[in-house]
Amino acid sequence: MVRASLVAPCLFVIALMSTLIPTLLSVGFGAQHTSYIDQLFRDFERQPLDYQGQIALRALRNRFREESILHPPATELEQLQRIDAVLLCASGLIDDRQYFDVTGSRKSPLQQLRYELRQMHRETHRLKLLSLDFQRRNTP
Fold first, then answer.
1. Which of 53, 89, 118, 134 is 20 to 30 A distant from 126 in Cα terms?
2. What 3-state class would DSSP assign to 34?
């Protein structure tokens, strides 16, 4: 009588464990898997960037993560378009050598133009601050 009452709970626990353990393991190992876009951002973050470049890269990463959560890519083409968008946006932050180190390829003309525009924007911003500082020093 005692033996019969213990068999059912033991079988239940064994059945539960046999389904629960593989599920937990797959979820745990799935958490280790990172997307190609996350890996790209990690590689870009390893490159030497100025403080504003680091902030811009983090904001870019957060925007793409939020977009992926709200609108996951339905097709392989959408995923490739997002990767291209990441590469285009990040190419404005890093130079040719850093881009080659991360991706293993050269920048496209559009990506090169993005970088040059960012450099011109930084230079005009620096000159604007310099002229404001100069005006402030010469004003009594």
1. 89
2. coil
How far apart are the C-alpha atoms of 58 and 42, rounded to whole Å? 10
Encoded amino acid at 25, one letter: L
Structure token pair of residue 37: 């876009």
Under a CB-based contact definition with an 8 Å cutoff, are residues 90 and 39 in contact? no
Q: Which two tokens stand for residue 82?
A: 């997002």
Tokens of 78: 């959408």
DSSP letters spanning 19-51: HHHHHHHHHHHHHH---HHHHHHHHHHTS---H
pTM, two decimal places: 0.60
- Whether residue 130 has pLDDT greater than 60: yes
Report pLDDT for 131: 92
pLDDT at 34 over 80: no
Q: 116: which 2 tokens?
A: 């040059």
